[in-house]
Amino acid sequence: MSDSHLFKRTIHKHEVPSEYLPEGNRTIRVYLPPGFQDWISYPVVYCQDGEDFFNFGRIATHAQRLIIEEGWDPFIIVGVDVDKKIRTSEYAPDGERYAIYTRFFTEELIPWVESHYPVRNVPEQRILIGDSLGGAVSLSLAIAYPNLFNRVISLSGAFYDAYFAQIELAPTLEQIRIWMLIGLQENEFTTDRGTFDFVELNRRAFQLLKDKGAKSHYVEKDGEHKWGFWQNELPEALGAFLGPAPMEFTL
């Protein structure tokens, strides 16, 4: 790639202040596309496990290549970091910190990003993405805040019972478009809540979402519950919403 400013990969780190989080702030990473101009508005991808998406998923590297080499329209990526020790507490609907984390995300993070960067502020142009619990909480946010989000990418979503309860309570999920991936070798994965068959959980989630009217694209393929699998699938996942020919989702 050229070293000119047009092709420069730009990533900023910020501490977003919070009145909800006991720590008082949260670290985020913001990728700006090549040729970024602050007078142009851009679609935005919000990543749970932000540090992992940038370091292990190499999402900024993928984005840079897709925009420069494959002609995708540019977009901004916001990675929201998480402390792994409290991750389940923040991401699971029955977790102690879930309520304060989701309030931070929707009432503080989104307004902060939209006041500092020229990202588009409509649900169709805000994409939520996450791996494992991050994928599940991305869907959870879209269910709880339909006025903010309706585009979701779930990489091997860890759909525990609390997520199914949330899906079942929703009167309709017709507004949601979700791209789901699960690896066939994820059928016996040990977590801090026990050992789960994530293949079966994702199949169940996919069917329940269909029953609620959500439009889904569901992919099963050989893969384990790790970044070596997810990293390679990111271009296809992002392409469903951001590529030159966005996917037509169906029931």
UniProtKB/TrEMBL annotation:
Classification via Pfam families: Esterase (PF00756)
Keywords assigned: Hydrolase
Keyword Ribonucleoprotein: no
Transmembrane segments: none
GO-annotated molecular function: hydrolase activity
Gene3D superfamilies hit by this protein: alpha/beta hydrolase
Domain of life: Bacteria
PANTHER family the UniProt entry points to: ENTEROCHELIN ESTERASE-RELATED, IRON(III) ENTEROBACTIN ESTERASE
Protein name per its UniProtKB record: Alpha/beta hydrolase-fold protein
